[in-house]
């Protein structure tokens, strides 16, 4: 199977857009994204683990998880799903961050495009301000973390 890497796309100053083509059909990618047991296997950057406390993938549904960093730090996150269009699009409002640090808020839009047996996944992170986007990119590695998360999803799907 061909190897695909993540790509950062041009965006507005308040956004980060990352895309990757995965060697898996869209329905399989959707299932890996919407099943809490599967999400816990791949969510987050390399070296992180995730504990999913609650995940109801429907408009108005709550998603609570804690990301555990390789340094032992915890990153509690709580999201509310605002749009779910199976198997094309998931939109949620996310707030969270490292315990004891200022919280981040952003809108996350994940799209899943059928590419004839493969799936192009695009993550669009929209921050309230350009300053918040820059802070998250510099302090928490939001761009590299997004690329690594898509890489971990690709690895999980190839198992």
Structure summary:
The protein is built from 4 helices and 8 strands.
Helix content: 25-40%
Order of helices and strands: EEHHEEEEEEHH
> What is the C-alpha radius of gyration, as a whole number of Å?
15 Å
Strand content: 35-45%
Mean of pLDDT: 94
How would the global form be characterised? globular
What is the number of strand segments? Answer: 8
- Largest sheet data: 8 strands, antiparallel
Strand order of the largest sheet: 1-2-8-7-6-5-4-3
Structural class: alpha+beta
Descriptive notes:
By secondary structure, the chain is of the alpha+beta class. Helix content is 27%, strand content 40%. The chain is built from four helices and eight strands. It has an eight-stranded antiparallel beta sheet. The radius of gyration is 15 Å and the shape is globular. The two termini are 12 Å apart.
Topology:
Elements: E1 7-9, E2 15-22, H1 26-34, H2 36-42, E3 49-55, E4 62-68, E5 74-85, E6 89-96, E7 104-114, E8 119-126, H3 130-140, H4 142-157
Key features?
8 strands, 159 residues, single chain, 4 helices, alpha+beta, 8-stranded antiparallel β-sheet
